[in-house]
Design brief:
Layout: H1 2-22, E1 34-44, H2 49-62, E2 66-72, H3 75-83, E3 88-92, E4 99-105, E5 110-116, E6 130-136, E7 139-147, H4 164-182, E8 187-193, H5 208-211, E9 217-219, H6 222-226, E10 242-247, H7 251-254, E11 260-263, H8 274-280, E12 287-291, E13 310-312, E14 319-323, E15 331-337, E16 342-348, E17 354-358, E18 365-373, E19 379-385
Parallel strand pairs: 1-2, 7-8
Antiparallel strand pairs: 1-12, 2-4, 3-4, 5-6, 6-7, 8-10, 9-10, 11-12, 13-14, 14-17, 15-16, 15-18, 18-19
Length: 386
């Protein structure tokens, strides 16, 4: 019995080492960008423990911040996945068949919340959209994970409410209404296996509500949809049906040279190519968005000209002081590293207008200080630690 345990442990170790080597050249994320990936991991785990091990190695190799997953069979499998990924945690939408889920880096985000919307709209949404709301570098982001109704004949019949294309069309309209009503000026990213293409003619295009409103929305992956089928997310059809839609607040960020979007061809890292990937992981490729957010912490200077934080000395090597307008309510003073990790948090009593601290133990680099309260707009400043 003891010898068999030793052999089993060795086999697991050899697999882990082999998988790590297999994906050592696979990469996507960086320390200075926000990465959001949508991935239908078909009936996860499709091939049991092998799938869990492969997906763990793939996500860690990609080094992405958020993975919006479709088709998770059970929460226990998701827990097994993130138990082996030190930097990540998960959230799972209960009471859904092949449920929606998020896997995300825990250190990058603050004030995280998850919730479902349109739970009573089963015709439009066979699976209720799962929302992740969080604070990243002082900005609120809202990510809406979806898995639209599949199938159909590529012709939309709006007179038939159970027509598959009509159901996807109506789901798109509801998502648009939800964003306009709840986050009219928010940083919104809509992702998922949306089960239809972007390039249909307008009368059959289930996404036309977004396409007709370029002042508010952009399909970040439109160039993929219009391009070579070798880069599409669902090769077995072939088609491109996994999409990432962004609100206008993020369009300038997507235009940054450091930003990108691509179908991530994980199948190319399997010895058997597509067949090996399809057997062990999924019939969908992940689609990844990388955003370089120039407006770090999201507080334009011209929006709050009368309220500033003064930081001195700047740069600093040991003690640093902050001077700011007093407020008539308790304020929160938070300090973030350049990659968005919160490193310090303190409650500032009302009417206090300055604070000093010993910063000598912190690593050298760029930091951001954010001050906020329930009665004032947040204000932000940056400083350097030598």
């Amino acid at each position: 019995m003891f010898e068999r345990k030793i052999i089993f442990i060795l086999l697991i170790s050899f697999f882990a080492i082999g998988a790590k080597a297999q994906f050592e050249d696979l990469q996507f994320g960086t320390d200075s960008t926000l990465e959001v990936v949508t991935w239908n991991i078909e009936h996860f785990p499709k091939n049991g423990q092998s799938t869990i091990d492969y997906v763990s190695q793939i996500i860690q190799a990609l080094d992405v911040d958020i993975v919006a997953i479709q088709e998770v069979s059970d929460k226990s499998y998701l827990d097994q996945l993130t138990d082996g990924m030190e930097a990540y945690d998960n959230f799972y939408a209960y009471n859904q068949y092949v449920a929606l889920a998020f896997v995300y880096k825990t250190a990058l985000f603050q004030d995280i919340s998850f919730f479902e919307i349109f739970k009573n709209k089963n015709r439009e949404f066979p699976r209720s959209p799962l929302v992740m709301k969080m604070d990243y570098l002082g900005q609120e982001f809202v990510i809406i994970n979806n898995h639209f109704k599949c199938c159909g004949n590529q012709i939309m019949d709006l007179n038939d409410e159970w027509d598959e294309e009509t159901r996807r069309h109506d789901a798109s309209v509801l998502i648009d209404d939800y964003i306009a009503s709840n986050y009219p000026a928010g940083n919104i990213i809509v992702v998922g296996d949306l089960n239809d293409i972007l390039t249909d003619i307008p009368q059959n295009n289930v996404f036309q509500v977004f396409i007709d409103n370029p002042d508010e929305y952009l399909f970040a992956d439109m160039a993929i949809a219009e391009g070579d089928e070798a880069n599409w997310s669902y090769p077995t059809w072939p088609s491109h049906i996994d999409h990432i839609l962004i609100s206008n607040e993020l369009i300038d960020d997507l235009g940054n040279p450091a930003s990108t979007i691509q179908t991530i061809k994980v199948d190319e890292y399997f010895e058997q190519g597509w067949s090996g990937y399809d057997y062990n992981v999924s019939d969908h490729r992940p689609v990844g968005l990388m955003l370089k957010t120039e407006s770090l912490l999201g507080v334009p200077a011209n929006d709050i000209p009368a309220r500033k934080i003064l930081v001195f000395p700047n740069p600093t090597s040991d003690y640093v002081s902050f001077s700011f307008p007093a407020a008539d309510a308790e304020m929160s003073l938070r300090i973030y590293s350049a990659v968005g990790q919160e490193v310090f948090d303190l409650a500032i009593p009302k009417n206090q207008s300055e604070f000093s601290m010993d910063f000598s133990a912190y690593e050298s680099g760029l930091y951001f200080v954010k001050l906020s309260s329930s009665t004032t707009k947040p204000i932000v400043a940056r400083f350097i630690k030598n």
